[in-house]
Design brief:
Elements: H1 5-21, H2 28-35, E1 45-47, E2 52-55, E3 71-72, E4 77-83, E5 86-91, E6 96-101, E7 108-109, E8 114-118
Antiparallel strand pairs: 1-8, 2-4, 2-7, 3-6, 4-5, 6-8
Length: 119
């Protein structure tokens, strides 16, 4: 595959303009650090088994299934995903302490989307 030298030259110019616009006080490495995404250990997450709408509690106004800091065991329900008017309980697949709940109540979720991160 041949790369067009004009495109590379244009990209370098755009990057130089961007660097000037963010100021000379910040270097490119510190900018990279500020926008670096948090990496998550895939072995410590609970993912959505289906596409649907996530609910954190069994009914509106009820206590949530999980909260940050709560210890859960394999098989505990962490939330419900509604699909086609069917309420599907999502069980914990590993033991751990809830570090982060990645979805909001009533939020649409995709298959394989991270729902809960554990310690």
């Amino acid at each position: 595959m041949e790369i067009d030298k004009k495109i590379i030259k244009k990209l370098i110019e755009v990057l130089d303009d961007l660097k000037k616009s963010i100021g000379e006080t910040k270097d490119l490495e510190s900018l990279k650090e500020s926008i670096k995404e948090e990496t998550v250990d895939e072995s410590k997450v609970i993912k959505s088994p289906i596409i649907g709408t996530a609910y954190l509690a069994p009914e509106p106004g009820a206590k949530s299934f999980v909260e940050v800091g709560k210890k859960i065991k394999i098989g505990d329900t962490v939330m419900i995903v509604e699909a086609m008017k069917t309420m599907n309980h999502v069980p914990a697949t590993i033991n751990g302490t809830v570090k982060k709940i990645s979805v909001a109540d009533g939020q649409p979720v995709e298959y394989g989307q991270v729902l809960v991160v554990l310690d």
